[in-house]
Every structure is written in C-alpha cells, then in structure tokens.
Design goal:
By secondary structure, this protein is α+β, with helices and mostly antiparallel strands. Strand 3 and strand 4 form a beta hairpin. The protein is globular.
C-alpha cells in the first residue's frame, strides 16, 4: 500500500486459529513513517500478555483501505483490503526447538568427504560429491608428476560453492563454540539426527551433537597445517574453475609453479594461522571437560601454540596476497593484527584454565592496547566483531571469568561503553545497525552485532542488560519475518520463507525435481550494495532465487551466527526449571515421581518434558538413584 495509508485507531484482534475465538484485542498505535529502510508506515505493537500455548493469527477488520492503492506485490499475493489477516503463528515454550535443530543440521547437509545417508537426510541423501579430496596437490605442484599429495577430505563446503577457506571456517567454528559454551543447556535438548548422535551407528559419540559436528570441521582444518607441523596453515583448499580439481592454494601468483622461486610457492597465510590459533585454543576450552574428547582438546591446544609461535617468528614472510587456483586471497595487515590479538586472549584463557603460565599472552595484550588495529573496534566504523572488530574477541576471551584481570586491559576495554551507547542509538527496523551496513551477508552481520553487545555486557556488567536483551529479541524476530518484506530468512520456517537457496549442491549436483532445499538454510539477506535495482529501499533489496548469490547464498558463517543468536534467544526466554518438575507443569508433585518411574521402566509413550529437572545426582543422566533422591525430597516437602 502507499506509504500515506495508515490504520491509526483501528482495532487488531488476536484470534485462536483452532476455535476462531478472539483471545486478545487492542487499538493500533499511530504509524511511523520508516523513510529509508522500507518506505512503509509502520505500526508497532505487542501482545506479550498472551501466553497460552496454541495457534493464532491477527485480524484487522474494516480497514477502510483503498484497493486502488495496492502495489503489484499486494495484488500478486491476493491481499484482501477490507479485512487483513496475518499468517498463523504458534505460542509455546518449545516453539524454536525445531528451528535450532534445523539450523544445526545444516552442517550435516554441507559435509564433504562422505555420503549423506538417507536415514539422516531423507530425500536430500547424496553421494560424496568430491571423493578425490583424499589426494590433493598444492597449486604450485599441479604440473609436477612427482608431487606430494595431501588428504584434505572432510569438513563442510563453505557456502554455495565448494571451497574450504580457513579464515571463514575458523570464524564459523568460533561462533558455534560460543553458542554451545554460553548456552549448553539449550544444546542438551538438540535432536540433530546425525550419525554421531545415533547410538546404533559406528560413528556414535557420547557427546552433544553440535560438538561432534564442529569436530568434523576442525578435523579437516587441522589437515591444512603445513606437513612439517610447524603450526602454519594454508589459506584454503579450493577448486580450479578450469578442470574442477581441488588444490591447496599456496602460490604468490596464479602462474607460479614448482619451478618458480621459493618465494612464490608453498606459501602459508598469517591471517589463516592466527585465526586457527584462536579457534583451536577456544576448542580446547570447550572440549577439555568432555571425556571422549579429552585427547582432541589437547591436540587443539598444542596446535594452537605452534600456530602462535609461527605467526610471531619474524623469519616467516608476511604474505598478504596469495593468488592461486581459484582466486587471489588478500588481507590487510590490520586484519592479521586483530586476529593475533584474538588469539592471544584466547590462548591466555585456555592456559589459565589448564593451570599453566599464561603471562606471555597477557603481556602481548598489554603491549598492543594502543595499536590502531586493536582500537579500531571502538571506532564508529566498526559494527561488531564480524566487521573490523575481531580484536574484541581477544578482550572478551581474556576478561571472561577472569577474577584478577590486568588494570591496563580493563581500562582499555572500558571504551566498550561508548561504542555500546553508539550502537544502541541505531534503530533500523529494530536492528542495532546503521542503514549503510546492508551489503552481502547483512543477516550474518546483524546477528553478530547483537552478539557483540551480548558478549560485551557479560564482561562489563557480568550479565546482559535489558536494552541488549530487547535487542536480541528484535534481531531474532527480524530474521524470522518482522522485516520490510515479511519474510523468514530461514528455509522451512515461516509461511513465507526461503525456498530457493543459492547452492551448487541443490541447484546443480544433487538437484531434486521439483527444486527443494532442506529446512534450516539461513540466507544472506538484504543487499543494496549489489542490488540497488531491486528497490530504492534498503530493506527490500532482496530476491529469493537459487541463482542469486548476492542475497540468497547459504554460508557456514551465516548459519553459525544465526545459531549463536537463536540459542541465546532461547536461553534468554527459557522458563525457569523447578527441581523435580520433570513434566514441566510448574510444580514438583507426586505426578513427577510417577512419570520418572514409568520412564525408567520404559513404559510406552511416556516422555519427560524436562528430564534435567529430575537429575538429582547432577551427572547428566537419569537412573534409580535420581528416583530415590526425588522420592526423599518429595516426602520432605
């Protein structure tokens, strides 16, 4: 509708979709014209008082809207102007469980190096698309008949393409590790349905499914360390467009080969190595207390320390450009310094938890507090750790849980408060983002921006403040449909959601007829940088097309950011658990005792809504000992 049309003063009703009963109603507040992002007259209202589980829709009758003012989009979608009816929606305590399951299951669909099994993927089962990844040459050795080959199989395809890029992968894993570390109780309930979570599968692991999936990626990344095990990492393994053969990217120029000067071949990347130093130290922190992963955690930390030593060895040439099989990989020295700062803070935390001397890394942080690369996080041009602010994560890792931090580091991080105030002044359709921040990957950036604020609050105030909590809800709701195009950017979630993801898997090599993609694929979002022709309004510069990478590509880092945001949202809104209340009705009664007893006896169709409430022994399992303690506590009430 044209922007001058409003529904000021009209009544909106929330209607039970099953009974058509009006369960809530109120008057719409006056609309506000949103000039740049949407061009819409926006009414903002909520009905938080309605908490009864069920299916509902919103209805506005007698709108008085003029049908002649409808846009082509309105007409194409059959908009009825007399009475407006919204899509239906659910209210329940577990409304987002399937969303998180699907967002995380995404990584199974993106796996390389294995067949995707029908039992776990259904119609999206497929063969191993690139079985030759077990025997890969470096790009410099592409014409060398005597060249050594390497196994770089496994891991995830990066995005809509098939590359394996170390820095984006490491950053994706970082977000996933944060999501699990800060919200473990949310992932304890995850039902990923992958081989590692299936007790009858040979690959079953007695650990949270998300950690098994992350390890699948880390195992591949570890293969990209130089064969000398000196801690250095190549920048990527990628496919040459000419022959679709994968190579380890290692040359200064695309034309360099095994006969070129040593300065042009077997090049490793300082940025990739710094990012691996950071993420492997973080992996140690997360995996070390899980018995089945104890050795893996030590491997991660040992490799992280080697990587740290390599990036700090002045004899290793800093190559800021590597031009190999697929593309030229470039980075600024500032990017590297930010990642090195992150690595120092993360290694400090890892070694401190291990009970070892971490003073070298603390001293590095202190010595670099005045560096421009570090302070760029606090600048107006920085909108989060995902954009010109990687050093922020170095501060966070150092300060989180640190009871005796350096006064110098604490004082330096106090600049966060000014940055925080600046970011919270933005209000772009409820997002703490400026209108200029909507380029390729805007959804990822939006998720990471609010997660930056959440992490910053944790180490500044020891808890997330209410204004940031509100921001978390706003950013989350934006992704799922409260945006200028009323569109959910997650496939399979929402009546108007992504259907045509940009993906070489589903568009080309494993395409189904008719076209389909799995639920849980999170797309890149509005992009007026590449697509100003789509709309004069930034928030509408989007198209749902499997041929449009600029708005609709999937990425491992986009899904990771959305998982971090979703798990945080779920933890923030989780009902408080009552000890013993396994049926989750809000009270601990004899009914809970009976339910646990039946469950332990494997009585059919008996489920525990909150099994952790019955874990009286606090050992992450339920057995007769818990039942006995439950009985004693109930009798003592």
């Amino acid at each position: 509708m044209k922007y001058k049309v409003t529904l000021n003063g009209k009544t909106y009703e929330v209607v039970n979709a099953e009974t058509d009963e009006v369960v809530y109603s109120d008057t719409l507040p006056d609309a506000v014209y949103e000039e740049k992002f949407s061009g819409e007259m926006v009414h903002t209202f909520n009905f938080d008082a309605l908490t009864t589980p069920g299916s509902y829709y919103i209805r506005i009758s007698d709108t008085g809207l003029d049908p002649s003012a409808m846009s082509p989009y309105d007409k194409a979608n059959g908009l009825e102007t007399d009475t407006l009816i919204s899509a239906s929606f659910e209210i329940s305590n577990d409304v987002y469980d399937n969303l998180l399951n699907d967002l995380t299951k995404y990584y199974y669909y993106q796996r390389q190096g294995v067949e995707i099994e029908e039992e776990y993927a259904g119609i999206f089962a497929r063969e191993n698309l690139h079985p030759d990844d077990v025997k890969v040459k470096k790009w410099s050795d592409r014409d060398n008949p005597d060249a050594e080959t390497f196994d770089v199989s496994g891991g995830w395809y990066d995005a809509g393409d098939y590359g394996k890029y170390v820095t984006p992968a490491a950053n994706s894993v970082s977000d996933l590790l944060f999501a699990y570390e800060l919200n473990p109780e949310i992932f304890a309930e995850l039902e990923m349905n992958i081989p590692e979570t299936d007790p009858v599968h040979p690959n079953y692991i007695d650990a949270p499914g998300i950690l098994a999936e992350v390890k699948y990626e880390l195992d591949m990344l570890l293969k990209l360390e130089h064969s000398s095990k000196d801690g250095s990492f190549y920048t990527a393994a990628n496919y040459n467009d000419d022959d679709n053969t994968i190579y380890i990217e290692d040359t200064l120029y695309k034309t360099s080969n095994h006969e070129s000067d040593a300065s042009e071949r077997d090049l490793r990347c300082h940025l990739a190595t710094a990012d691996m130093a950071a993420v492997l130290a973080h992996a140690y922190i997360v995996y070390r207390d899980i018995p089945v992963y104890a050795d893996f955690a030590e491997q991660c930390l040992e490799t992280s320390l080697r990587a740290w030593d390599w990036i700090n060895d002045p004899s290793n040439t800093l190559n800021t450009s590597i031009g190999a099989a697929n593309r030229t990989y470039t980075f600024k020295e500032t990017n590297f310094e930010q990642s090195r700062f992150q690595a120092a803070g993360t290694i400090y935390r890892a070694l401190s938890l291990k009970g070892e001397d971490a003073s070298e890394y603390e001293n590095y942080l202190i010595d670099n507090l005045d560096a421009e690369s570090v302070n760029s996080f606090f600048a107006a041009s920085c909108i989060g750790y995902g954009h010109a602010g990687r050093a922020f994560l170095g501060f966070f890792q150092y300060l989180y849980g640190n009871d005796a931090p350096s006064a110098d580091i604490t004082e330096s991080f106090a600049q966060y408060d000014t940055w925080r105030k600046r970011m919270l002044k933005y209000d772009t359709w409820g997002l703490e983002l400026p209108n200029w921040a909507f380029w390729w990957g805007s959804n990822k950036q939006a998720a990471q921006t609010i997660m930056t604020l959440m992490l910053g609050d944790l180490v500044t105030y020891r808890e997330v403040q209410e204004d940031v909590k509100n921001g978390i809800e706003n950013h989350f709701h934006y992704m799922l449909g409260i945006n200028p195009i009323s569109f959910s950017y997650v496939s399979g979630h929402g009546e108007n959601s992504v259907e045509n993801i940009f993906s070489a898997i589903y568009t080309k090599d494993a395409r189904l007829e008719p076209y389909q993609c799995p639920a849980g694929y999170f797309t890149e979002g509005a992009n007026d940088s590449n697509n100003p022709h789509l709309s004069k309004f930034t928030g509408k510069c989007y198209i749902d097309s499997d041929g449009e990478w600029t708005t609709n590509e999937n990425t491992i880092y986009g899904n990771a950011a959305m998982i971090f945001l979703t798990s945080t949202m779920m933890a923030q809104n989780a009902p408080e658990s009552v000890r013993g209340d396994v049926n989750a009705d809000g009270d601990f009664t004899a009914a809970d005792l009976v339910a646990l007893q039946k469950w332990l006896l494997c009585v059919p169709d008996v489920n525990l809504a909150d099994w952790k409430a019955g874990d009286f022994c606090e050992n992450d399992r339920l057995d007769a000992f818990d039942l006995s303690m439950m009985r004693k506590e109930l009798l003592s009430k």
